[in-house]
From TrEMBL:
PANTHER family: BLL7988 PROTEIN, IMPORT ATP-BINDING PROTEIN. Residues 19-246 form the ABC transporter domain. Keywords: ATP-binding, Nucleotide-binding, Transport. Pfam families: ABC_tran. GO terms for cellular component: membrane protein complex; plasma membrane. It comes from the Bacteria. InterPro entries: AAA+_ATPase, ABC_transporter-like_ATP-bd, ABC_transporter-like_CS, ABC_transpr_LolD-like, MacB-like_ATP-bd, P-loop_NTPase. One of its GO terms (molecular function) is ATP binding. Belongs to the ABC transporter superfamily. Macrolide exporter (TC 3.A.1.122) family. This is ABC transporter related protein. It comes from Chlorobium phaeobacteroides (strain DSM 266 / SMG 266 / 2430).
Length: 248
């Protein structure tokens, strides 16, 4: 661990800070052209909160989530996880962070088609340090009756719930969801959001959901809006809606 910051609490926060994003920029160079995907972005995330990162296509959401998840590095700026500066961490520390602290859920579920739902989750629990049992993880997402089904025998929403079970089985401190309902129809999308909401409430997992769908912001504690790589709003919802109350 190279650099530490103090655990801070914002005035109106009662939960400890988990993650600090400080002045992060990301530039992609495509020959002569430079794309500024993120421009001096700063934000904090607190333990147990459900945050929605909102923004139109190309606003920089995935770039930010990939940096937060340790899959990519910023061009400048710093990222701290419980005081560990990830942007100055060794490859070994970054790998440990990705393995232990982060659960990823993507738009497309990335399940292994030749393995059952249970076996897909077991892939993670076999190598995790302190996992939830795969059966329990699948129960948490309401798939106790589908454990021995292969992905092709499951609906899109059920496959996404297996992906969520796989992500949460290692008890990640941060669950990062990149457009988790992007490939799903309206009703199925709401079921998946309900599962994410339940995981956040029941396990207390700090959760970041990125979406371009403004309505989904209603279920969040915090809503951070990105536009052209910059934070244009960072607000708390005064009333948090349950996913069943959302409509779009
Ligand atoms: N590997 C890359 N090389 C070059 N440009 C990139 C790369 N990845 C992203 N970009 C550019 O950076 C900007 C932000 O992209 P990003 O994928 O983060 O946006 P997004 O808000 O997640 O969009 P979407 O909702 O469409 O996924 C876009 O202009 C995109 O074209």
């Amino acid at each position: 661990m190279k650099e530490f910051i103090k655990d801070q609490r914002a005035e109106n926060e009662s939960s400890p800070m988990v993650l600090q994003v400080r002045g992060i920029s990301k530039r992609y160079r495509m020959g002569e052209v430079v794309v500024n995907a993120l421009n001096k972005v700063s934000m904090d995330f607190y333990s147990g909160e459900l945050a929605v990162l909102l923004g139109a296509s190309g606003s920089g959401k995935s770039t930010l989530l990939n940096i937060i998840g340790g899959l990519d590095l910023p061009s400048e700026g710093s990222l701290f996880f419980h005081g560990l500066e990830l942007t100055a961490a060794s490859e070994k520390e970054l790998t440990a962070y990705r393995r232990r602290a982060i659960g990823f859920v993507f738009q497309f579920y990335n399940l292994i088609s030749s393995l059952t739902a249970l076996e897909n989750v077991q892939l993670v629990t076999d190598i995790a340090e302190n996992p939830i049992s795969p059966e329990e993880a699948l129960m948490l997402v309401g798939l106790e009756n589908r454990m021995n089904h292969f992905p092709a025998q499951l609906s899109g929403g059920e496959q996404q719930r297996v992906a969520i079970a796989r992500a949460l089985a290692k008890r990640p401190e941060l669950l990062l969801c990149d457009e988790p309902t992007g490939a799903l129809d309206y009703q199925t999308g709401k079921i998946v959001l309900d599962v994410i909401d339940r995981v956040n409430r029941n396990l207390g997992t700090t959760t970041l959901v990125i979406t371009h769908n403004v309505s989904i912001a209603g279920m969040a504690d915090r809503v951070i809006t990105l536009r052209s790589g910059e934070v244009v709003e960072d607000r708390r919802n005064t009333r948090k809606l349950s996913p069943s109350e959302l409509s779009w």
